[in-house]
Each structure stands twice: as structure tokens, then as C-alpha cells.
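Summary for the steering committee. One of the milestones for this cycle was to obtain a three-dimensional model of the protein with 2-amino-3-ketobutyric acid bound, which we needed before selecting residues for the alanine scan. The sequence and ligand used are listed below.
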Amino acid sequence: MRKEVVLITGANGEIGHGLMEYLGKSEDVQIVALDIQELDEELRPYCYRFVQGDILDNMLLGRLVSEYEIRTIYHLASILSTRAEYNPEAAHRVNVEGTLNLLKLAVEQAEWQGRSVKFIYPSSIAAYGLPYLERKNRAGKVKEDEWLTPQTMYGCNKLYCEHLGRYYARYYKQLGADSGTSKIDFRCLRFPGLISAFTLPSGGTSDFGPEMLHQAAQGLPYNCFVRADACLPFMVMPDAVKSLVDLWAAPRENLNRLVYNVTSFSVTAEDIYTIVARSFPDVVVTFEPDARRQKIVDSWPSEIDDQAARDDWGWEPDYDLEQAFEEYLIPNIKDRYRSKK
Ligand code: AKB
């Protein structure tokens, strides 16, 4: 008998930390965690098995297919937007070929199990690309099917993988003898910038939000790489995890789309500074925009429209801007760095 498990790739990343902790506490979920890095000690108790390895390693994935009955895949592994611009081809390999490998694994599992496998895929606001700042400022809340002209390799990768997911779910081998039998239940979220009290992202372009907060909490100065008026949608990690789990749990027949926007609040870098300074009055933040990273932020929407998620599967964030900082970020971050002193 193969063991029934949930596979989480990129388990040691930011979302991985939040999701592993949440799912790992539930007794009926056995997690097989995969990451190219060693898994943080604190996450070990949450997983049934940790495999250190590469999503580009087909032999390794083949072994997982033959060892486990994988019911759900949370495919979180990816190279974020800023890092991807330094080595676009490597990013393409990890972000696209890696996703293709996981979709193939899901097909093999579904065929063997004779039932569908859920494939939960976090995409990003990076899938959007507004041509210039003035257009961004006039765009209002951007819906899922608008402005899909990304300007970054990461954004192109995410958008293409959304299409791959749709292909595998609906059209896989459509001319083959067994056409129409794909059992991949592909479900995708487009995340805004994410902020966690416990971990820092690495290699992203929305990182100025979390970086400013974490620097301030440690009493360190922060040189912000975007203008004070740079505006993006954000969400705190508990809401990101909630959205992944809620989308997973939604009845298939309620889902009118494969890809959903989710968001909580939109803020400028200056708003974040103002809120952070309320709790850490000695914080020193300077704004020295990096023109190239700023241009990426200027191509991402200030606000996204998540009405479809609200209508189809009852999405609602638990934390608005005020609650995010007052109830989740500030108290937890104070604790975190106090205990590190
Ligand atoms: C990044 O900045 O690359 C990510 C994202 C917006 O998906 N945080």
C-alpha cells in the first residue's frame, strides 16, 4: 500500500513555512516536503518525510510517484522576479520546466489512482504588465483577464504556467486515444506581495514591504529601493495560507475559473513607513529608488479585483491593513526579534 500524502514543493520557502505549519498541525494530512535547500529544523515535525532535491530531477520525481499516493500537490517552488532578471534562462528552467515536471507527475499519479489529483499553484500579480505608470494609476482594480502582458521573466513564467495548468486540466493529449480523460484538478491563485512576521522573502520585487518592517523591528535602518509613492497590493501570510487551503477545499462545481485574484489591502511604500514608524518610532527609512526595480513595480497593478474568488468560493481575507499590522505583524515580529536578542 502506498501512503496517501500531500506533496509540497518549495517547502522551505516563505509560503512553504506558513503552509507547512498550518497543514502539519492537522492530523489527517501527511506531508511529503520537497526543497532544494535543507528544511528548517522547526518545520521537520510537520512533515511525514522531507526530500532535499531539485524539481528538475526527473529520477527523483519518478521515485516519489512510485512510492506515494499523492492526492494534492502544492507547487510553491519558484525563482522570484528580481532574482529571475539576473538569470532569466535559469528562472525559466525552474519556474516553467519545474512546473511541467510536476504537472506530468500529477498526470501519472491521477492515471494510476484512477481519480483526480488537485494541483494548487500560486501565481502572482507579476502576471500583469501595465505599460507605464500613468496607465497603472488609471487602471483601477485589475481583473484576471486584463493587462496580461508581463514585463519580467518571472511574470512570463507564471502566466505561461497558468496556461499549462489549463492545458493539462482541459486539453491534455486531446488527439490521443485516451483524450478527455485528464484528471488534473488545476487551481491557481494570483497572489499580491506577501508579508510574514516570521520569514523574509528573497529575490522578489515586492520585498520592500517586508524588508522595511523586519529592518525596523531589529532597530536597523532601511534604504527603500522604490519611490515613497510606489503602490502595490499586499496580503499577510495567514491570509495567503487561508486562500490556498480554501481554494483547495472549494467544490469543483463552484469554480467558474481556473485562476483567481486574491488580495487584502493596497499600500504605498510611504504608507508602510508611516505604519511601521508608529510601532518603531526610531526607524530610519531613506528612499533611494532603483530605476530598474521601480519600473517593474510600476508595471504591476496597484489594486486587483478579487470579486470572482469572493463569489465562487467565499474568499475573504481575515486581515485588513490595520489588523494586518496591529494584530498579526507588529506583535509577532516584536516577539520574534525579542527572543533572538
Ligand atoms: C515578487 O516580488 O517577485 C513576488 C511576487 C509579487 O510574486 N513577491
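Key point for the committee: The domain at 78-338 is CATH 3.40.50.720 (Rossmann fold).
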